[in-house]
Amino acid sequence: MKKIVLLIITVFSFTLLQANTLEEFNYDEKESKYDTVKIKTSAVCKMCKERIEHDMSFEKGVKAVELDLETQVLTLVYRKDKTTEEDLKIAVTKIGYDADDMVADQKAHDRLPGCCQKDVEPH
Ligand SMILES: [Cu+2]
Q1: What is the mean pLDDT of residues 93-119?
Q2: Helix (H) or strand (E) holding 39
């Protein structure tokens, strides 16, 4: 019984921690606490999209995440007092993807499945 309660608490707190998709998050432009950044990534497929959105949604200060595969642009809504554009781009490179002019962390990139690496055509 204790285990079940613990599990429920764990799942619940993860749900709280994880950021929303852009639609879920009612982003009020006037609310100065938040800012939006668009980052060009090297994502090539659905798996990349899922991986980046999942990992970035747990990144500190991130409130909403969405990656457009056609443009490879990752849109993030974040709390200005918790993180910076620079930190968010670094986080993307650590997942293994380029972030604007920042090059992907080589080790992280090499750990990605072959179909997600930079030398493949978008698919
Ligand atoms: Cu991929």
Answers
A1: 95
A2: strand 34-40
Domain membership flag for residue 72: yes
Strands 62-68 and 20-21, bridge-based pairing: parallel
Q: HSE (CB half, 13 Å, CA atoms) of 33?
A: 8
C-alpha 81 – ligand 1 centre gap (Å): 31
The model's pTM is 0.78
Token digits for 13? 């707190």
Q: What is the pLDDT of residues 10-41, one digit of tens each?
A: 666 666 666 767 766 665 655 678 999 999 99
What CATH number does residue 101 fall under?
3.30.70.100
Q: What type of residue is 19?
A: A
Domain count across the chain: 1
With contact defined as beta carbons under 8 Å apart, do 112 and 96 qualify? Answer: yes
Give, as residue ranges, everything with CB less than 5 Å from ion ligand 1. 45, 47-48, 116
Classified as helix, coil or strand, 114 is helix
CA 63, CA 78: separation in Å to the nearest integer? 5
CA of 109 to the centre of ligand 1 (A): 11
